[in-house]
Amino acid sequence: MNKVFPSSEAAIFDIEDGASILAGGFGLCGNPENLIRALHKKGVKDLTIISNNCGTDEYGLGILLKAGQVKKMVSSYVGENKNFERQYLNGELEVELVPQGTLAERIRCGGAGIPAFYTPTAVGTMLAEGKEVREFDGRQYLMERGIRADFAIVNAWKGDRLGNLVYRKTARNFNPLCATAGKIAIAEVEHLVEVGELDPDLVHTPGIYVDRVVQGEFYEKWIERRTVRPRPQA
Amino acid sequence: MPDIKNIIAARAARELKDGQVINLGIGIPTLVANHMPPGVDVVIHSENGAVGVGPAPEPLCGDPDRGNAGGAPITLIAGGSYFDSATSFGMIRGGHVDMTFLGTLQVDGEGNIASYEIPGKLVAGMGGAMDLLAGAKTVNVVTEHCSKDGASKLVKKCTFPLTGAGEADVIITERAVFRRYPGKGFVLEEVARGYTLDDIAACTDMDYVVSDTVQLEAFGPEPGE
Q1: Separation of CA A160 from chain center
Q2: What is the pTM of this model?
C-alpha cells in the first residue's frame, strides 16, 4: 500500500468545481499551504470551504477567496481579510459563522459517526434560531449537526507512507479533526518518513484516516503578528 | 495621560486566584498576564490548542508553529502541552477553565454580552468567544467604560447580536467594577480614583445597584501619574 502522491497538484486531481473541503489550520498556523496553492493553480470554483478562518488577503485560504473560487465559507472568525468582507457584504459569498468549539465538535462528530450533539454554546443568541433546544439537568442546550465533506486537506509535521501523522505544537489545531471527516483525506507533510519511523504511541492521526500523503513542496510559514518581549534596556 | 488599558488589566488581574486555569481574549485581556499579583500562579489556556502559555518570545525567536489565538507567537512553560481544537473546547465547555477575560462591544444588566458583530458594518465572527462565555466558570468582561464616541458600553439592553446570554459575571472598566449576584443584577463594588458615584451614574446606561460597602478610590492611577 502506498498512499504517497508525487505532488500537491497530483494529490488534488479529483477535486472539482462545487466540492466541499474541510481545511485544517488556525489563522495562518498549520495550514495545508501547498494543497491550497494547488487548488488555486487548478482554478476550481464554487467551493464550499469549512475551516476555522479564511487566511489573509495574500495567504492561506485567502488566495482562493481573492480569486473568486469560494462559494461558501463555514468559519468561526473571518476578520483580517478585506476580500472576505467585500464579497460578503456584496452578497457574492455565502457565510455560515459557527462558534469555534461548535465547529471543532461538529467536525469531530462528523468523523466519528455522530450525526448531532447538544452544546450549551450559543443558547439565547441569534445562532439558536431554528435549532432544537433541549434541557438537560436544568440547563439549556442547542442541537448541532456533525459535518462531513467531500475532501479534507490537512498539514502535518511528519507523516509516513501509510498516512500516520504527527503534528507540531499549535499547528495541530483543526488538522486531526478534519482528517477524520473528509470522504477523501489528503495530508501534506513537512517531513515524509519511512513506515516504522514514527513511534506508534505518539501518532496523532492513525493512517487509516488518511487516503493520500504528499511531501509539501514549499513552506512559507507565515507569522500573522509579531509580538515579542521588549529588548532589554542597554 | 494614564494608560487606560493597563489600568483595566491590572485591576482585572486582582480577580485571579492561585492555581486557576484561565483564558485571555485578544486586546486588553491579553495584558492581564503582565499584572499577575505576587504569589498567584495560574495556568494560561489558549483556545487554539495549548495550556501553559508563557511570556512572549525573545525577538527573532518566534516559532510559526506555536502561536496564540490572535496569531502572535508564544512560548510554553515547562509542564505545558499542546492538543487539538476539539480537546481545547472540551476543556472550555467541560468546566476545566476557571476564568475567562473578554472584551466587548456592549454588555447589559442581565449579563448579556455582544462582542462579535456590528450589523452591516463589521463582519468578524465570534471565534471561540461563545464557547468561552458558555463554558468558563467565571466570565470577566474587561472593557473601556465608553466607546470612542463617548457612549456607554454598559448599556440598558444589548442591541448588537449576542455572543452570550446572561453570561457576564464581573465587569471591569477603567472607572469601576460591577459584580452580578443572583436576583440582584449588577452591583457597583468599586470606583476608580478620579471618579465619584455620580460620575459612574452619568456614564453608565446599564441598570445596577450601589453596594452598601462600595469602595471609592479602589484602583487606578496613583495621584500624579
Answers
A1: 20
A2: 0.95
